[in-house]
Amino acid sequence: FQKQGKDMDKVKQRLAEIANYVDKFYRALNIRVALVGLEVWSDVDKCPITQDPFTTLHEFLDWRKVKLLPQKPHDNAQLISGVYFQGTTIGMAPIMSMCTAEQSGGIVMDHSDNPLGAAVTLAHELGHNFGMNHDTPERGCGCRVTVDRGGCIMTPSTGYPFPTVFSSCSRKDLTASFEKGVGMCLFNMPEVKVLYGGQKCGNGYVEEGEECDCGELEECMNPCCNATTCTLKGDAVCAHGQCCQDCQLKPSGTLCRESSNSCDLPEFCTGTSPHCPSNVYLHDGHGCHNVDGYCYNGICQTHEQQCITLWGHGAKPAPGICFERVNSAGDPYGNCGKDTKGSFAKCEVRDAKCGKIQCQGGANRPVIGTNAVSIETNIPLQEGGRILCRGTHVYLGDDMPDPGLVLTGTKCGDEMMCLNRQCQNVSVFGVHDCSAKCSGRGVCNNNKNCHCEAHWAPPFCDKAGFGGSVDSGPIRQAGKSVAVTPQEKFTAFQGPTAPNQPPSATLTSPSRPAPPLPHSATIFKVTRSHASAFDRPIANTPIDVTPTKGGSAIDYPCCFIFPGMSQLFRQRTSFSTRLTCCFHTNGSSFKSN
């Protein structure tokens, strides 16, 4: 705020440009970012913000889950701060965490006079949430922009000129993440009523009074929509959606979104709407289909897949004694994460399988990257002989927590799952009570509704009908049978039997310094706007800026909310996400990550 001469118009223009840049970056990946809200902490920080980035991230994510998420539904939150983080860190975010209640977010520092700098860092950390790893030399990533012109957004460090494009590796990582079930909330379009900035024909969102919206006239390729008036052409009934074909609605029971993984459920057209129903997946705690694990946020996490991620194919989890002995140490090589003070926490015996992952077999060294080292522990047995336990100590750069820790949602025993570094019973989700109401002819979805087999009707699968759920549409059309894959036949969801494939992660440390950080702060509300080009982002819609009481020139965090990453990915469906970004400005210069 001070940097902009305490001129509110300049401040809101800067923030609009940041939002526009992030949206523009992700459009290249068929993802839209729409600004829907803002929270300002004018009197006191609602969570501790310190120079320790790990602690700040931990505290912010906890606050988001407990306070922000229940008040304002969104898919991702980013705290943007001017605080000096230790070392070279200017951002930090958990990987493959998009849409999760616990870890879908990150922290970002506003480190440049140019708003493009903050936008690039935000896009980078958001990329980690999506499952994108750093573009390290050993990965052989293709980037259409040379390093001297900025390179690509997911490079380990950010300098000037700033990167504005994603590499081939980022695109592959994103594809792999979606195939594993990351980002289940992205299928659901945000409510246009919550978007800030007012209504505008040509912004790509169908708003009140519009029949369609295919973007600006020069970019509209939709044969069913008049881009100038945002009305349907001729005899068109629809213009958008997976259940709209040749400007007409597809029949009820038409498959519009396949199951994407062992915890996902299919969706079908209703015959009354051009849009595929919102994405649903198996209730948390439900057994994965054909995988020895449990579903959590639509993903099936296992120790085996994580061992393969770290050690390559042929790796498998070590015996339980390895987890118990190693993780009871409470040091960098064996722990249950860090406590709120940043110290390594010892694992209780019952929680040992939720600490540092312990493996056997695989490659001679970790395959996760050049900064990962092998930590081997030999444990003598009473009956003679020894067990070799293989762990990892990984430095992925200053913007990533330890990937050697067991992931939330991983099975740690019969009917048990890792939650908050503790091995807890899946009954905490109420999955058994929920499934009991489905009459043995369906499964419970994440909305706690029954998803019925093809010849039974929701809501309780106790009467003849067309299958599906009240959320997902009917599985079959009246008088017709619809072929479904074995994964969609719910008799298949009887128990886990085989491992699935692992996610991938490769990150390295920062190296290049960033431009200096301006001294600025303010309190405001920001609306969504639209940028026409990278080099000239323009706010095409009005921005509501409302000062609040109790602020000085420093220490003012606030939250952007960027919901709406709508996208057509492959031929699957439209994605959307609600992203909350929080700004806390009071700092000076920092190095980049």
Automatic annotation (TrEMBL):
<dbReference type="InterPro" id="IPR034027">
    <property type="entry name" value="Reprolysin_adamalysin"/>
</dbReference>
<feature type="binding site">
    <location>
        <position position="124"/>
    </location>
    <ligand>
        <name>Zn(2+)</name>
    </ligand>
</feature>
<feature type="active site">
    <location>
        <position position="125"/>
    </location>
</feature>
<feature type="disulfide bond">
    <location>
        <begin position="452"/>
        <end position="461"/>
    </location>
</feature>
<dbReference type="InterPro" id="IPR036436">
    <property type="entry name" value="Disintegrin_dom_sf"/>
</dbReference>
<feature type="domain" description="EGF-like">
    <location>
        <begin position="430"/>
        <end position="462"/>
    </location>
</feature>
<feature type="disulfide bond">
    <location>
        <begin position="256"/>
        <end position="276"/>
    </location>
</feature>
<dbReference type="GO" id="GO:0006508">
    <property type="term" value="P:proteolysis"/>
</dbReference>
<keyword id="KW-0812">Transmembrane</keyword>
<feature type="domain" description="Peptidase M12B">
    <location>
        <begin position="1"/>
        <end position="190"/>
    </location>
</feature>
<dbReference type="GO" id="GO:0046872">
    <property type="term" value="F:metal ion binding"/>
</dbReference>
<dbReference type="Pfam" id="PF08516">
    <property type="entry name" value="ADAM_CR"/>
</dbReference>
<keyword id="KW-0472">Membrane</keyword>
<dbReference type="InterPro" id="IPR001762">
    <property type="entry name" value="Disintegrin_dom"/>
</dbReference>
<feature type="region of interest" description="Disordered">
    <location>
        <begin position="492"/>
        <end position="519"/>
    </location>
</feature>
<keyword id="KW-0245">EGF-like domain</keyword>
<feature type="binding site">
    <location>
        <position position="134"/>
    </location>
    <ligand>
        <name>Zn(2+)</name>
    </ligand>
</feature>
<dbReference type="InterPro" id="IPR024079">
    <property type="entry name" value="MetalloPept_cat_dom_sf"/>
</dbReference>
<dbReference type="GO" id="GO:0004222">
    <property type="term" value="F:metalloendopeptidase activity"/>
</dbReference>
<feature type="domain" description="Disintegrin">
    <location>
        <begin position="198"/>
        <end position="284"/>
    </location>
</feature>
<dbReference type="Pfam" id="PF00200">
    <property type="entry name" value="Disintegrin"/>
</dbReference>
<protein>
    <submittedName>
        <fullName>ADAM metallopeptidase domain 12</fullName>
    </submittedName>
</protein>
<keyword id="KW-0862">Zinc</keyword>
<feature type="binding site">
    <location>
        <position position="128"/>
    </location>
    <ligand>
        <name>Zn(2+)</name>
    </ligand>
</feature>
<dbReference type="Pfam" id="PF01421">
    <property type="entry name" value="Reprolysin"/>
</dbReference>
<dbReference type="GO" id="GO:0016020">
    <property type="term" value="C:membrane"/>
</dbReference>
<keyword id="KW-1015">Disulfide bond</keyword>
<feature type="disulfide bond">
    <location>
        <begin position="434"/>
        <end position="444"/>
    </location>
</feature>
<dbReference type="InterPro" id="IPR018358">
    <property type="entry name" value="Disintegrin_CS"/>
</dbReference>
<dbReference type="InterPro" id="IPR001590">
    <property type="entry name" value="Peptidase_M12B"/>
</dbReference>
<keyword id="KW-0479">Metal-binding</keyword>
<keyword id="KW-1133">Transmembrane helix</keyword>
<dbReference type="InterPro" id="IPR000742">
    <property type="entry name" value="EGF"/>
</dbReference>
<dbReference type="InterPro" id="IPR006586">
    <property type="entry name" value="ADAM_Cys-rich"/>
</dbReference>
